[in-house]
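Notes to self, ATP synthase complex subunit 8:
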Amino acid sequence: MPQLNPSPWLFIMLTSWLTFSLIIQPKILSFVSMNPPSNKTTPTPKTTPWTWPWT
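result:
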């Protein structure tokens, strides 16, 4: 069963993982603009109780 031989696949997996984490990921993260956190509190909505027709 050749799929159990980790010799070629381990190197390919590690190379692709390192390529992604060291080269591609910083390039992608530079395009993502994060919104700064705001100190504004969200107002609580005013709710009215539901009137059930069968009670």
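- The mean pLDDT is 81.
- The radius of gyration is 27 Å.
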